[in-house]
Amino acid sequence: LTSSEKHRIVERVIRRINERIPVAYLTNKAWFCGHEFYVDERVLVPRSPIGELINNHFAGLISQQPKYILDMCTGSGCIAIACAYAFPDAEVDAVDISPDALAVAEHNIEEHGLIHHVTPIRSDLFRDLPKVQYDLIVTNPPYVDAEDMSDLPNEYRHEPELGLASGTDGLKLTRRILGNAPDYLSDDGVLICEVGNSMVHLMEQYPDVPFTWLEFDNGGDGVFMLTKAQLLAAREHFNIYKD
Questions:
Q1: Rounded to whole angstroms, how far apart are CA atoms 229 and 97?
Q2: Which of 195, 218, 105 shows the shortest CA–CA distance to 144?
């Protein structure tokens, strides 16, 4: 290493210790599903257990290869891009409300050479989307409840609050997703949604909804699956949250 390179490393270590800045923001690099992504403080650091599902091609969860995939709340675009690698014949839409996040996603899409396979779209969830019938909707929306937000470690304070907070119980956006998703799923379509610790609130408030809570070999929880048929059957619970 040159003296300037050594100096940069020492500088980053000092900032990591003193400011509690995540390493991914200091290096502008994060890994997800074996792929490298550019990240900065406009997006969350990729860490979703959904990556394990993508690596396994959603085995046992989908009946056929998806042709149309939606990554809702895409952030850095890592889930959308990983899905494009896993299903090279699929068209993937990467949706986010944040123009800053979409700028990062667009950069990553270009870096991975996937501009013809992954389309970034700015939308407030489904509000500005055409009625495409997706075979697979994957979403890692903001889901941190108010109590957990107040107790977040300092490292998480560097991440955009827009990508974390979702109301008192952490379900503000999830309810809207559940209300709108069936209109955007094909007949055999599946919704995969991460809600983290807010799974407790979801199960308490909607005991009649048949959430399938997925298990992971590499750690993680709070991810559920629902089919279009199940979403339609549960529609009475979520109709008021439709856009």
A1: 28
A2: 195
CATH of the domain at 207: 3.40.50.150
Evaluate whether 116 touches 81 at the Cβ level (below 8 Å).
Answer: no
**Residue 189 dihedral angles phi and psi, to the nearest 5°:** -70, 155
User: Is 35 a member of any domain?
Assistant: no
Q: Are 142 and 166 in contact (CB under 8 A)?
A: yes
Residue 115 maps to a domain: yes
The helix or strand, by DSSP H or E, that contains position 37, with its residue range, turns out to be: strand 35-37
**What tens digit of pLDDT does each residue of 81-124 get?**
999 999 999 999 999 999 999 999 999 999 999 999 999 999 99
> Which of the four pLDDT bands, split at 50, 70 and 90, describes residue 142?
confident
pLDDT at 143 over 80: no
Handedness of CA 71, 77, 78, 81 (dihedral sign): positive
Report if pTM > 0.70: yes
Q: Which two tokens stand for residue 17?
A: 């210790």
